[in-house]
Amino acid sequence: MKKLKILITSPSLDTTKNIGGISNLTKLLIEKNEEVEYKHFVVGKTDQQKRNVKWFLSQFNRLYKFYRTIKRESIDVVHLNYPMSPLSVIINLFLSIIANKICRIDTIVHLRGGALSLNNKIPHYQKLIIVSCLKQASHIITLGEEEKHFIADFYNVNESCIFVLPNAVEVPDFDRIETRFQNSLNNSRAINMLFLGRIDKNKGLNEIIEALEILNADHNFIFHIAGTGEDINEFVLNCENILKKKFIYHGVLGYESKKEIFLKSDIFLLPSYFEGLPNALLEAMAYGLTPIVTPVGSIPELVIDNQNGLIVPIKNSKGIVEKIEYLFQNPHEIKRLGINAYNTIKTDYSLETYIQKLNLIYEMIVSQKNK
């Protein structure tokens, strides 16, 4: 049987150029999903690239290349990864018009979180742009149930064409992480806390610094950062000045190096102002880290407070302090919450399950078209 050919969009798959979850998951799909044939099309910028006039003008050329790729490759389905950010929604509107209206190819709009996600206070023109793109899609994928209901209600989209498909990650064997749980009960060693991902103030970086400054004098910990972003210099400098030897910046890590830092860490900090369902959080939980997160985007459908992680209010450094102190005073909770986090990902967010569900969506779209 001939494999379906799927054109999938995302930023560069080079993990040294793009550390975001969309790129990482797309890369895994292309490598692991043997049931379909993917054609990757680069949309967006690298982490270090500036959105200047030259970059903006280059996007018009990308639109033509997108059209040519669809025609040349005999694509069955276009899979648009769609970050809910002001510039991305404009670019993806043009891509959806090319795919759906010009090339007559069924299109999936896969919503990926962002500043406009679950936001009912956006400007009217942005709402019109998003509505136009969603109405053209054969199917829409959201990261959680709350987002599905919001999209259906706020953008007046039929729920029957919206699928919920949370992000997914590869899950290690439990014996790889079991030793660290035993070490978490050792009161003499430093607790390793980790922030990994895009270094952006919207990730709650200021609240992390404020919290760790309060904890610095009386607690034995090391704070690790891996990643890059527009606020990298300011954030790293502040951490170096405040935490000194209790701080380590690891730069941008490749896939294998990222696994190693997860294996050495105990707590994952992500007090974001907004999110979709971040892959970095899923990866951290898959390695048994205890997440301390805010209840934004689809995170509350993943992290249950005091069951497989800890939830703090948005923009609340005091809440972060209280949760970290709780873990220091109750080190057995690091083990309990970490094991529960691991089991959550293994049961409901594994890459194998994700691929099976996604392939069913692809097949449904093509079968409906052929009727």
How would you describe the overall organization of this protein?
The protein is of the alpha/beta class and 371 residues long. The protein is built from 13 helices and twelve strands. It has helices at 21-32, 53-73, 86-102, 124-136, 145-154, 178-183, 205-215, 232-243, 255-264, 279-286, 317-329, 331-348, 351-370, and strands spanning 4-10, 36-42, 77-82, 106-111, 139-142, 162-164, 191-198, 221-228, 247-249, 267-270, 290-293, 310-311. It has a six-stranded parallel sheet, sandwiched between helices. Helix 3 packs parallel to helix 4, helix 7 packs across helix 11 (317-329) and helix 11 packs across helix 12 (331-348). 42% of the residues are buried. The mean pLDDT is 91.
What is the radius of gyration?
21 Å
Sheet/helix structural class = alpha/beta
Determine the number of helices (DSSP H or I, runs of at least 4 residues): 13
Uncertain segments are none
Distance between the termini: 18 Å
Q: Strand order of the main beta sheet, please?
A: 2-1-3-4-5-6
Number of strands: 12
Order of SSEs, N→C? Answer: EHEHEHEHEHEHEHEHEHEHEEHHH
Q: What's the story with the biggest beta sheet?
A: 6 strands, parallel
Form type: globular
Mean pLDDT: 91
Strand fraction equals: 15-25%
Query: What is the percent of helical residues?
Result: 40-55%
Briefly say what this structure is:
The chain has helices at 21-32, 53-73, 86-102, 124-136, 145-154, 178-183, 205-215, 232-243, 255-264, 279-286, 317-329, 331-348, 351-370, and strands at residues 4-10, 36-42, 77-82, 106-111, 139-142, 162-164, 191-198, 221-228, 247-249, 267-270, 290-293, 310-311. Helices cover 46% and strands 17% of the residues. It is α/β, with parallel strands linked by helices and 371 residues long.
